[in-house]
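RETRY 2/3 - previous attempt timed out on the joint model. Re-submitting the same 805-residue input unchanged.
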Amino acid sequence: MIAKMRNKKRFSAKAFVLPLAVFFSSVFFASAQDTLVIEAGKVLKGDGKVLENVFIVVKEGKIEFIGKNYRVKEGTNIIEFKKSVITPGFIAANAHLSVTKKTNEEQSEITPEMNLLYSINPRAEDFEKAWRSGVTCVYLAPGNLNVFNGTGTVLKTVGRTPQDMLVKNQVHLRVTLGREPGRGNSPPRLGPISLRTRRPQNRMGVIFVVRNEFTKLQNKSDVPDSELSPEELLLRSVLKGEMPLRIRARSYLDIKSALRMMEEFSYKWILEDGVDAYRYLDELKENKIPVIYGPVYRPKGRRDLNRENDFYLAEAPILLAKKGVMFAFQNNDESPISSLRDEVIYAVQLGLANDIALRALTLNAAKILGVGDRVGTIEAGKDADMLIFNGDPFEPSSRLERVIIGGKVLNPNK
Amino acid sequence: MNQLKHKYLISIACVLFITLGAFLSAREAEETFLIKVSKIYTSGPKGVLHNVHLLIEGGRIKKIIQGEELPSGPIKDYSGKCLVPGMVDAHTYLSGYYRLLENTEVITSDLITFAAFDPLSPEVKDALSSGITSVNFVPRNENLVGGISSVFKLSKRIGYLSFLKKEAFLKISFNAEVIREDRAPTSLMGAEAILSKKMSSIQENSEGEREGIFQEEGIRRLLNGSLQPMIAASTFEEINTALMWLNKWNRKGIIVGGEEAYRFSEILKEREIPVLLTPLLFSLPEKIAKNAALLLKQGVKIAFISDMPEGEPLGLRLSALLLYHQGISSEEALKTITILPAQILEEADSIGSIEEGKDADFVVFSGEPLDLSSKIEAVYLNGQLVFTKEK
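RETRY 2/3 succeeded.
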């Protein structure tokens, strides 16, 4: 009996020691092999600072250390980029990518609970185009054919599933002002009654829908959270100032409407697609409203698809920067994501300062999206999203040589 | 007067004939006989058997006899032939393609499909003659919630269906066919939102007044756990949405279609979600058959469906063949059209394999079942010969 027990004990000890040994050895190897050390010639950190001849240590997809004093252990993976310029990965604060089949949910004009995350295909071609041109992070939101479109999603551009790529979900609640939500809607006297026999048909109707929803909720201020539907809860968090509203207002008319409604409902908001933003510089500066602008270049004589009256001006980002309004860049259906850097280069050639342009593409975009703690600069503790150029990033002749996303080194030219 | 008598005689003769027929058929079901066959793919724990006799009694397999003394009785000799279990089609519209479409609303969770089954349709004959014996008869993909499917044995007799499960699965669809321009879900996220909204509203007032009974009953039963969802989802986005929805409502379900299911093989295995795959195609054999084999190797339960009448009944056998060409043994490949669909339909205790005590549903091939040149010699359903090759 005792012998048997001893036997058992010895066996269990063996069973315990073996996996432990395997575990420790794996940890040991991991510490040497999973670390990536980049010897960088010049680092533009994204917040305006410049470092020269430093080591960047990447471990488990995060930046562990950045500085000059680092003793390289044997067996670590070192990449030398002594003549290159390293910047943080670019962030498109609003991206127009075809990564889902249908983005517009038109069951109603008010669909704030919509979220694109699960209908995104990570193998879509546009994600590849994005990272190959240096865009490591994008903001995607439901389409703009109704008034309350839904909440946006911030994603990395490389990953196996959208859940892997996710940086932050339910970022801003987007409202579209202007003519777009009314497109396709019809009054009941024309043809049979259908899904789109409803308000609004024009921008007055859109303002009505927004004000109607917010007023209805203001009247319900006594009702506790538990009795509200998920959509109403989202709208309430907007009115409380917890979730920023992202207002898509191309035209100066709509920007003015958004400013007027802000006085009425005192929401926090971000101006998206602000083509005419430079006409309200004082108001935007005073109320600290960030602007998402782009594309910078529009061919002469070409008007917006909706025939909106906007006053496109290529120098708009320079005016915004001069006034001190926080802004970031976006692409839209007229310019592919792969030309985001080219757009910014155009702005730089028109007179935008290099460091402000870089900041708009990285840190400011991250701050506007509320993900400034994870991406946007090259700092210890943040995600290892970096771009390696063989010259100044806003020099047209310099080439993007490597893209690092989450510690993974990718070659965009292969 | 004479004429009237004549009519009487004819009607009496008719009645006699019918009763005799019914009596004979009843006797046939009770009949005991032996089947002699050279090779059996049992799809069960016994694997492949050679030179066997099957004792059939009362429509069931009573005994598998190997090298023992044979009991007396009539013997049906299929020596030199190969026998496989009757095929199970876990998702089919056969005979009722247009009758299964109830497109007035997006959610029609009350409809039960067996009312649309037409035993006289030539498709039933086609299916039986190609070895399909049990089917899961499902609503179409056009509705977000189509209705409740039924599992039964195929039969050409009118007004008679031997059900395995009258109300089996709730058919939900996240397919591209649901998303249209002219009605409510115009996007995938909207489809999921509409369904979840409906479910939570039903959950909230489960005791309260019922609005739109046609929309509700199936979902009510889904919520109390008496029905399992069967979700049509083919592309990556659709399957991702389906998995998210299943997770949200804490349900185990079945994925139908599953063209890109291989991209979720780990999650599907971990959460034990089976996949019903549409027939493999010769046009892209490398691509699709490879993915099916990948799922099977990863340990995900898969089964092929014929998708009749969009597909051919032969699709089941062809799919198993293409799987065989991806390095799966013919025994394992045959399981994907016999025992695995039976397990997915939760009917594996009566159909899907050749085991003692199970229903006597089987197909006799002239040679190896995955050899395309071998033909079906006979199909037995509940111990009765339902198809035989014309000589």
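The radius of gyration of chain B is 23 Å. Closing ticket.
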